[in-house]
Amino acid sequence: MNAEIINPDNIPMEFIESEINQVQKEKNRLVAKAEFHRVGENDASEKFWWVPVKFNRIRRITGYLVGTTERFNNAKRSEERDRVKHSC
Fold first, then answer.
1. Residue 3, SS3?
2. Cα distance from N-terminal residue to C-terminal residue, the chain
3. Is the dihedral of CA 49, 17, 24, 30 positive or negative?
4. Is 70 left (phi over 0), alpha (psi -120 to 50) or beta?
5. What is the DSSP letter of 42?
6. Is the pTM of this model over 0.85?
7. What secondary structure letter does DSSP report for 70?
8. Contacts with 15 (C-beta within 8 Å, 6 or more apart), sequence order
């Protein structure tokens, strides 16, 4: 496990690893850092920091959502090049 773990209350690592695995599976994301604190006798407070998700630019060109234009034919490339670009 590559996550940084903050565990000042010495909660068993088996519990921490199972909680991290469960939350990664539920959220479909990787945990970068996790903090655990004991709350009561059988409970723990947990806080997670996530590994950033890589995001590519998405454009809408003639009704299609695309990330890159490398697979476009000449007509589609011309259409994208000649269109009016608006700024915010």
1. coil
2. 43
3. positive
4. alpha
5. T
6. no
7. T
8. 44
